[in-house]
Write a structure and sequence with these properties.
37% of the residues lie in helices and 20% in strands. The protein is of the alpha/beta class.
Length: 824
């Protein structure tokens, strides 16, 4: 932090007003000084005394009331002589009203006022607060202790800056002597934690929070004798932080702490020990006890750089909560004043203690920078630490005593080795189909999130719906005669190809002659009509079990098999993701064609000069376009070889489930010639049932869909590939996928080494998972299926394992990778 705003308030009181100076410093140089005045506001002092009186009379819970009735002391760190009334809802409401009145009065007092120069002070302070580039701290310098007790954060200038805290300072702070301490051991942040007289209060939560601080070396003193406390403070090794919890109080202009049940000490009684501790590096003193302003004033006179106290009596539960929140924020890297302000704000949860957020106060030297937790840790790594007393704010730097150590390669290698092992395990799980359900689930989510393509104008679907089959002449199943009439009418309007996705294995709804006439019509039509047949289930010898042939007399060139929809088994149902274009040559069938229904439609739509080349186990070529066949281990699949027989592709669905224009059978039979010509001419027309009770109704990644619509998706996909040079959905090679998983596994370990605090690590790993998702989805949008689940698992599991290793002291410090380290 290189900028400091000091508000010096002097020469006045609330009855007469105050003279105020605003001083702005940057890098130790004073940039400006503005004089102004604050107007009189006598009611503030009265409101504060009224709030204090009611606040001290409150009891914080119904349990406290019961303790009181049984003769037990409550959980307040306050003498019972101060308690005049027990907890009542009226008392809480009265206290809340005083809080509201006082905060309103403070807001009005600090708003623009006619007092001379105050407007200029506000304007300059606003300008400095808006400039957040290099950080700023605000210090209120005054000897009036009532000004310390006010809740300055209700000031409109500070409400919009939740990370800027206010510290208080005494005008008589002297320049501290330069402290130059050589730390030759690799030790952690040293905390002397003194737990004094604990009658009627619980100090264990305070110790647990301090003891769990990462990077700390806390030394507890429980109810020590005065001699033991003083001797420990004088240790040559020095202390970074002094902490006290227990009972304390202000007596006149000094403070007293109760260190055990029989002994108490005024600050003057161990001031020399405190001065020596300061010379040995003591930077922060925290008194998580009652009525600490007297303590703060006396400690400030001893040149302790930073003192945190409670300005009034404090309930035990509030003191515990403040310490927990403050240490959490401070140890995670927040500046000290920011950590205190955030901890203060979180005390508002104690709604039965209005004004509890006012209790914590920082008193600090305006001549020295409060160190961050990270700077404490840097100092502890065997360095010479110089604290320069140049007025007012020259930050200290860390000078290495010796060349920095080489990177701790064995421990980094341990994390890298763990990442490699995790990658091998994930690849092994993939190869045994353990991750396949999750990977297919991710595939379905990607398919649903894709952008919706425009309708394919080359295709028209004649959807035989429930309303059509309710018409007497079109009742389901459509008779052979009605189908023949429909085909005849469609041919009249010059479609390019007609695909009949309606099974006709035997005479339907009429005579055998009608059935035979349908077969002749399909075979002899000038316009190509593709009928459909069912290959049926097969046994191990690939013999047909329940196959269904097409109408008689239709050649294999005008037949496509319907068993192209490959269903993947899911826990609840079957989902169609794959489509077979060409039949496995080993299968015997009553179906006399090798080509699927959709592929036959596409073959007849394309130019007769189009060349097709396909060999079993090889890719399909259509002229110069190569269509890669799915392999048993393509993408997230890990299937037996016999499950990928023939030539299979992944179906590229539209998330809307609408791939082409649809019309009903009734529309075709009843519309005028001009409308039908425009609708049908030069298009592929696919005919199929879309009735609610149709057995040809399948689950897909984008929802339930009738077979004719799935065939339409495949037709559109193949035409886009051949004519528009779009890519079929494909996947990376296995080597590329394994490297991808390895990269993210290593990333999880490295991130854990860089971000040691668990909250930061959770955020970073969450961002990493989001990054994996974005990358995978971006590739999927360009027809490449990249494994999401294994990469995300690699990141998370490697991070967890690396975190476990670091907790066992296998750590790498970024400092070790630098030849020198400087902190202003």
């Amino acid at each position: 932090m290189s900028r400091l705003a000091v508000l010096k308030i002097e020469d006045g009181d609330f009855d007469k007003g105050f003279v105020v100076w605003l001083q702005i410093f940057k890098d130790g140089v004073q940039l400006t000084q503005i004089k102004g005045e604050l107007p009189p506001k006598p009611e503030i002092e009265g409101l504060y005394i009224s709030w204090q009186t009611v606040f001290r009379s409150l009891r914080s819970s119904y349990q406290d009331e019961q303790n009181y009735q049984r003769g037990n002391n409550d959980d307040w760190q306050v003498d019972k002589s101060l308690v005049t009334n027990r907890f009542t809802s009226e008392g809480v409401e009265a206290c809340r009203q005083f809080v509201i009145c006082m905060e309103t009065s403070i807001q009005n007092w600090l708003q623009r006022s006619p007092a001379q120069g105050w407007g200029k002070i506000r304007e300059r302070l606003v300008k400095e607060l808006d400039n957040q580039a290099d950080g700023i701290q605000v210090i209120l310098q005054t000897s009036d202790s009532l000004l310390w007790k006010l809740h300055w954060y209700v000031w409109d200038l500070l409400e919009n800056y939740p990370d800027i805290g206010i510290s208080f300072s005494l005008p008589e702070f002297e320049k501290p002597e330069i402290v130059k301490k050589i730390v030759t051991e690799n030790h952690l942040v040293r905390i002397l934690a003194v737990f004094g007289d604990d009658r009627n209060i619980n100090l264990q939560p305070d110790w647990e929070k301090i003891d769990n601080l990462e990077g700390a070396e806390p030394v507890p003193l429980r109810q020590p004798k005065a001699q033991k406390l003083i001797e420990t403070l004088r240790e040559k090794k020095g202390w970074d932080i002094f902490f006290f919890a227990g009972h304390s109080q202000t007596e006149r202009d000094t403070g007293r702490i109760y260190i055990n049940e029989s002994e108490s000490l005024e600050i003057d009684q161990f001031k020399n020990a405190l001065k020596e501790a300061s010379r040995n590096g003591l930077k922060i003193a925290i008194f998580n006890s009652c009525d600490g302003l007297g303590l703060a004033k006396k400690l400030a006179s001893l040149q302790i750089p930073v003192i945190i106290v409670m300005q009034d009596v404090v309930p035990d539960i509030v003191a515990q909560s403040f310490l927990k929140e403050f240490l959490s924020e401070y140890a995670e890297g927040q500046p000290l004043h920011t950590a205190v302000r955030r901890a203060q704000a979180r005390l508002e949860k104690f709604t039965d203690l209005p004004g509890a957020t006012w209790l914590p106060v920082i008193l600090q030297s305006h001549l020295e920078v409060p160190p961050t937790w990270k700077e404490f840790l840097i100092k502890a790594k065997g360095s010479s630490v110089e604290f320069d007393s140049k007025f007012p704010y020259d930050q200290y730097r860390v000078i290495p005593l010796a060349p920095p150590p080489l990177p701790r390669k064995p421990k980094l290698l341990a994390v890298l080795l763990a990442s490699l092992i995790i990658t091998i395990l994930l690849v092994g799980l993939r190869s045994h189909s353990v991750l396949e359900p999750l990977e297919l689930w991710a595939y379905d989510r990607f398919m649903q999130l894709k952008s919706v393509p425009p309708l394919d104008k080359r295709i028209l679907i004649v959807a035989v719906n429930d309303e059509d089959v309710n018409v007497k002449q079109f009742k389901k199943p459509l008779s052979d005669r009605v189908v023949t009439q429909l085909l005849t009418k469609l041919e009249k309007y010059q479609p390019q190809v007609i695909g009949l996705d309606i099974q006709r294995p035997e005479a339907t709804g009429g005579t055998k002659a009608d059935w035979e006439n349908l077969g002749k019509h399909i075979q002899n039509s000038v316009r190509p009509i593709i009928a459909i047949c069912d290959v049926g289930e097969v046994n191990r010898q690939y013999q047909p079990l329940r196959a269904k042939a097409s109408p008689p007399g239709v050649s294999s060139e005008r037949i496509g098999f319907s068993d192209a929809l490959i269903r993947d088994t899911n826990p609840d149902n079957y989902i169609v993701r794959r489509y077979s274009l060409i039949m496995d040559l080993r299968r015997e069938s009553l179906c006399s064609t090798l080509y699927s229904f959709s592929f036959q439609v596409v073959r007849h739509y394309l130019s007769p000069q189009t060349q097709y080349r396909y060999n079993p186990g090889d890719n399909l070529r259509i002229d110069s376009i190569v269509l890669k066949s799915l392999k048993p281990d393509s993408g997230g699949y890990q299937r037996p070889k016999n499950d990928m027989q023939g030539y299979q592709i992944l179906i590229d669905y539209s998330p809307s489930r609408q791939v082409a224009q649809e019309v009903s059978l009734t529309d075709i039979m009843n519309n005028s010639d001009s409308d039908l010509l425009q609708l049908i001419q030069n298009r592929i027309v696919l005919i199929g049932y879309v009735t609610s009770n149709s057995p040809d109704y399948h689950s897909t990644p984008v929802g339930k869909m009738h077979g004719v619509k799935i065939h339409a998706h495949v037709v559109s996909q193949l035409l886009n590939t051949v004519e528009n040079h779009h890519s079929l959905l494909s996947s990376w090679s296995k080597i590329s996928e394994n490297i991808w998983i390895l990269v993210w596994s290593i990333m999880g370990g490295i991130l854990t080494l860089l971000f040691r605090f668990i909250k930061h690590l959770i955020v970073v790993i969450s961002l990493g998972i989001s990054g994996i998702f974005v990358i995978c989805f971006s590739y999927f949008s360009h027809a490449v299926w990249v494994p999401l689940i294994p990469a995300a698992l690699g990141l998370v599991v490697s991070s967890y394992v690396a975190y476990y290793l670091t907790k066992r002291d296998i750590k790498i410090s970024l400092i070790s990778f630098k030849s020198s380290c400087y902190r202003k």
